[in-house]
Amino acid sequence: MGSSIFTDTIRFTLLPPKLKRRKLVSSTRSIAHMDLDTFYVSVERLMDSKLNNKPILLGGTGDRGVVASCSYEARTFGVHSGMSMKMARELCPQGIVIRGEAGVYSKYSKIVTEILREEVPILEKSSIDEFYLDLTGMDKFFGCYKLAGHLRQRVIKETGLPISFGLSKNKTVSKIATGEAKPNNQINIDFGSEKPFLAPLPIGKIPMIGNKTSFLLNRMGVQKIKTVQEMPIELMEKAFGKNGQSIWYKANGVDNSPVVPYHEKKSISTERTFEKDTIDVFKLRCMIMAMVEQLAYELRRADKVTSCLTIKVRYADFQTYSKQKKIPYTACDHTLIEVAKDVFNALYNRRVRVRLIGVRLSDLAGGGHQIDLFNDSSKVLKLYQAMDTIKNRYGANAVRRSTAVQIKGLGRGNPFSGEPNVVPAHRNA
Questions:
Q1: pLDDT, mean over the chain
Q2: CA-to-CA distance for 388 and 301, rounded, in angstroms?
Q3: How far lies 118's CA from each of 110, 112, 114, 115, 178, in Å?
């Protein structure tokens, strides 16, 4: 479908009655989006200056490995994150391949987080290297742009890592602005200039638009954000449903979503009280594996990762013990299950009947599956994507590990909705 279909409609942007009531212009806010530039590569260069100004490929070193991150020098060859390492090597033969150490990246991420938390009233950590800062009202004291610039310089000075930010009235415009400011720079989008700023940019710059949606929009003749701004919202809604409505609002610089405090959700957990106390170690291990599998899926569904796993055991005499282990950020079943096995083996040493067992994942952060690209092959990543697609459509128990199939009745629901976890008790395991 060509772009000519819009020539007679772009002037008519009246909203239907139900949409007219939506608040199009929010109260003036000041939201900054900060993003550490090529974070993983920058950390590696801190540790080895010989890597400066060279094409770097980070991720799995084998042909089946996946590129977790790459330097700007490598990107000029067409390399991008998520690409197979084999293809990346073919595109950039001179690229330096580094496996990377997720624990090091987690360490630097936490340092930056603490720097920002010290000076910002509301901070949202959206991923391991991205942050939203609500600076609303701070203009009375320092000036929001000046304060954000101060924070950026402090991060650079204290960590040596390059960081960019965009400042505007909402999260969407600020995130897009950050992308335009990169590398290692900053930009302010004045109140009221959001639409002119967004208009000439490619439609794929809108955060919620993936490759599939971008392809469909391009087929409709939509190349620039300006075209969506000029389209009736009804057309977008008809073509893409509720997502189309959301795209239209974001294209027009409207986003009222709040900055969610980083500490708001610290952990998710589940536990099981057995109907009869058990000493069956195989049964206990299967239960732990089923719990970890469930919690890991909930993490991925919420686009979160964890860096701490805790196992809890309550014996028949009501003595309760727990043990935790700090780990690099992850949301992968197979990684967490191996950690859980090690923790359980270290914890369960009394050889007494067990009354209750539980698993908790804590120190959560946004970022989904990206951190696991260092250890996972493209085959594993595709498997997780396929499994999660099936689970999303048919339920969390539609696909399970064979060892966990026998475990029934684990609590389900969305643990990030603010509701307490469903913890079934006194069930046959």
A1: 82
A2: 8
A3: 12, 10, 6, 6, 22
- The DSSP symbol for 125 reads E
Residue 66's nearest CA partner among 84, 43, 89, 50 is: 84
* 3-state SS, residue 380: helix
Which of the following is catalytic: 124, 130, 234, 298?
130
Q: 232 and 253 share a domain?
A: yes
Cα–Cα dist 172/254, whole Å: 8
Q: Is there a catalytic annotation at residue 130?
A: yes
Strand spans (E) along 180-292: 186-188, 267-278
Q: Which of 5-14, 46-55, 160-169 is predicted with the least confidence, judged by mean pLDDT?
A: 5-14
- For 379-396, what is each residue's pLDDT tens digit? 667 777 777 777 767 666
E-strand stretches of 53-169: 56-59, 67-70, 96-98, 122-127, 130-134, 163-168
Q: Measuring CA to CA, which residue among 60, 153, 160 is closest to residue 108? A: 160
**212 & 247 share domain:** yes
Whether 181 and 166 have beta carbons less than 8 Å apart is answered as yes
Q: Strands 122-127 and 67-70, how do they pair?
A: unpaired
pLDDT tens digits, one per residue of 246-266: 999 999 999 999 998 876 557
Q: Are 247 and 137 part of one and the same domain? A: yes
Write the CATH number for 380: 3.30.1490.100
The pairing of beta strand 267-278 with beta strand 186-188:
unpaired
Give me the mean pLDDT over the 47-63 stretch.
89
350 CA to centre of own chain: 40
Least confident of 3-12, 304-313, 332-341, 373-382: 3-12
Tokens found for residue 122: 């509301």
